[in-house]
Write a structure and sequence with these properties.
This protein is α/β, with parallel strands linked by helices. Helix content is 38%, strand content 14%. The protein folds into two domains: 11-209 and 335-396, Crotonobetainyl-coa:carnitine coa-transferase, domain 1 (Rossmann fold), CATH 3.40.50.10540; 238-319, formyl-coa transferase, domain 3 (2-Layer Sandwich).
Length: 400
Amino acid sequence: MMKKLPLEGIRILELGNLVAAPFAGKILSEFGAEVIKVEEPTKGDPLRNWRVMHNDTSVWWYVQSRNKKSITVNMREPEGQEIIRQLSEKVDVVLENFKPGTLERWGLGLEDLRKVNPSIIMTRVSGYGQTGPYREKPGFGSVAEAIGGLRYLTGYPDLPPVRVGIAIGDLVAGLYAVIGTLIALRAREEDPKKKGQLVDVALYESVFSLLEGILPEYDLTGQVRERTGSTLPGIAPSNTYECADGNHLVIGGNGDKIFQRLMTAIGREDIANDAIYSTNQGRADNVKFIDSTIEAWTRQHPLKEAQRILDEVSVPVGPIYGIKEIVEDEQYIAREMLQEIELPDGKKVLVPGIVPKLSETPGEIKWSGPSLGQHNEEIYTDFMNFSFDEFKKLKEQGVI
């Protein structure tokens, strides 16, 4: 008998579009939460039309919206707002990423929903959070990456900052939304009054939280960490090195014992045993010399040979994968990170597996992203007990 998933019994109303909040909803749904995704009736979530399409639907959509139920509601109409209020009575969490103030204008803010469900948890993802002088500014992940300090660090010092090739700001905020929601659920579970609360996730803060020791470094010393290309400032050696076949290998030899093994493996016992390089600080002070020494060796070997030599002495090393290499990699396959699903037309396609792995209650992919309004009848008639005539009338009026 299959074990119950850990979030079964938790019901989430997802009001967000695009990336941040829906990414959180995806993760929660993979571990058993019933996620009811609300979409605008005519076009739905704009993500349905982003990037690579298959039969007029984004393939990204099938990943981001898996395991969710799609219903349509026009939240700009009073009748649609009333539907959201009624739904809020029956759910544990409302997950949203509208611009702050939008839901309040529709009578759907936290205080509005608390009137019908005091136990409601409202997880809100926005550019700058629900308070502060920037709260009403529109916020996108790309801007958050800039404001949050990440873009300043990304790229080479003699070139303009570059972006990471994915929506990293949105995705990190989505992870914090999951963390905050789970914490709030746990707190409510322990509260005798079962009172809900606000989970306020700001995109720029989510990015800023990743900046390691950059703030205290600046505050204590005035030091501003700058762009350093493929290196990691103050950590040595940790870089990308060219091999004889023109491919590049990432080597992390910044542990004291690891560095000794690395230098011995490349035939530089003199460096391995030199007290100057026995600590990270000594290596960081001489990073250019160390990097040039390592690359002099990697350029004598094809990538696979260099990787084999370093793997054998337990030095962290790896090639730079594109998606082609990922699909062919035995570790991805063994860990079920390349899962095959079937699209509505029967076409089979690979999608990313589930993270994290739980030994006793692992997550699962039940279905791919639904068609627009696919679960309208189920939610409105079975769950909300609307009569068929009510359901039909709302549909004719364009409310759903």
